[in-house]
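Archive entry. Fields below.
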Amino acid sequence: QSVLTQPPSVSGTPGQRVTISCSGITSSIGGNTVNWYQQLPGTPPKLLIYSGNQRPSGVPDRFSGSMSDTSASLAISGLQSEDEADYYCAAWDDRMNGRLFGGGTKLTVL
Amino acid sequence: QVQVVQSGAEVEKPGASVRVSCKTSGNTFTDYWIHWVRQAPGQGLEWMAMINPTLGRTTYSQKFQDRVVMTADTSTNTVYIHLSGLRSEDTAFYYCVYCKYYYGAGAPDKWGPGTLVTVSS
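PREDICTED_STRUCTURE:
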């Protein structure tokens, strides 16, 4: 069974840089299929990064994405209290011929 | 700017069926895909299926393929997902996601507000 693995939780202090990893990407299209989402309580997921490292308009450049082999990473620099949320990675999976989501990572700003 | 509107909350009994709609307007792409993703209370995101309304092509997650049917009405830019044989574990928010490509990336997507489906006797 295909799985995208994320750490359950990460934390940081204001101004710090944190990274969230996502492993298990098997798409033959590679990193071009990886998106990152931020979800605040009671709201739909919000797109932060698409195609591995592209930022939609309106997303601060504090958020950045990168790829390496079968893994992806989301970096958040200059951490702010409003960044406290759940973060999900998503990627196309060739084996299931569908989209796969990571289990989510809860970011706590201390 | 594309807008995505979903139908309202539903409460159904176990064994029943439910249909959720997703209407898009201001479509940025003439050829696009609608994905359905659900989220049970306090849980993560789960991909269910996708449809290309123009081509009529559908792909279902193996987990749901026996219980889910998607249809599209191109005259109103509305996509429907029908889930049958409801059980308590199907209680969740159901989101439709407007995407340019089948693989869900390549361009910014747009999520609907979600539809809460509650399955309870």
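CURATOR_NOTE: Chain B touches chain A through 26 residues (CB under 8 Å).
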